[in-house]
Amino acid sequence: MTQNELKDVLALATIAVERPLTSDELEMLNTGNFGLDRTLGLRYVEVGPERVISELRVTAKHLQPAGLVNGGVYCAIAESTASTAGIIFGRGKPVVGVNNNTDFISSVRDGVIRAEATAIQKGGRTQVWQVLCTHNGELVARTTLRTMVLG
Among 5, 79, 116, 138, which one carries the catalytic annotation? Predict the structure, then answer.
């Protein structure tokens, strides 16, 4: 990610503090995806001051040998989605995960996994987020993520 791309993403975070991003702004955010988000194919579908929602279309690269989505995928989706929410709450300051506790409730083989991050506690130095992952409207994983605000 270039410095200009990073500035664009942080500018979107400051907008999302005040209001949900528009579809054009979401497209800009998704186009700027980098790192694990890009590798996984994670896309943000709602980003705003109250919650962040992402979606992942399951492909063969997300599956374990038994043909089910690997548990680490849920952990990664939750961490990325809640970290994006944390950056918004922190007004563009980066956050890092310090604890990720994910419960696997039901297995998924295909389709779309939807993750919704909402705040449990928004502190100045640490934050706690709940992330619910669903598939066809059914809960498949639940994460509690603690983040630390940097800077």
Answer: 79
